[in-house]
Design goal:
By secondary structure, this protein is mainly α. It is 42% helix and 6% strand.
């Protein structure tokens, strides 16, 4: 009789039950979901910081363009004038570019940066990203990011 009880106890301890497996899978899903949620939150913050940094870099490139040519690119010439010499009037005689390291004028949400000349608030130019919604205005993560803001 003792052998029978010992064999029965050993058989019960040999593996996980279906319920135990479901509990472990549930815990893993909950942990993965919470980590993913936090990761998405930080990814959105990183995109905002990246857009601000790119706008600052484009602003510095426009200042270099201005120093060489005595004027900022027109709106028709756009930010592409930082990459290759414009062919649209007014064609700059002293263009010494490229003024940027890559021909990529998209924000982190893959929308074109908006370049205005003259700019808002009597500034010589403004560069804007419309954020995650790609439309002017918006709140929170869809807020606009502008060169005149820090």
């Amino acid at each position: 009789m003792i052998n029978g009880i010992t064999d029965f106890c050993k058989a019960k301890e040999e593996g996980w039950t279906f319920i135990e497996t479901l509990i472990v899978i549930g815990i893993v899903i909950i942990l993965t979901g919470s980590i993913s949620f936090m990761g998405m939150k930080y990814l959105e913050k990183a995109k905002v910081v990246s857009a601000k940094t790119e706008i600052q870099a484009l602003s510095m490139a426009l200042e270099s363009y201005y120093l060489d040519n005595g004027a900022y690119p027109s709106e028709d010439q756009g930010l592409e004038a930082l990459w290759e010499k414009p062919t649209l009037s007014p064609v700059p005689d002293s263009w010494d570019g490229p003024y940027v390291s890559k021909n990529d004028f998209f924000d982190p949400w893959q929308t074109d940066y908006v370049y205005q000349n003259p700019g808002e608030y009597d500034l010589p130019f403004t560069i804007s990203s419309y954020g995650s919604d790609a439309y002017p205005g918006g709140e929170d993560k869809a807020s606009d990011i502008n060169s005149w803001e820090d």
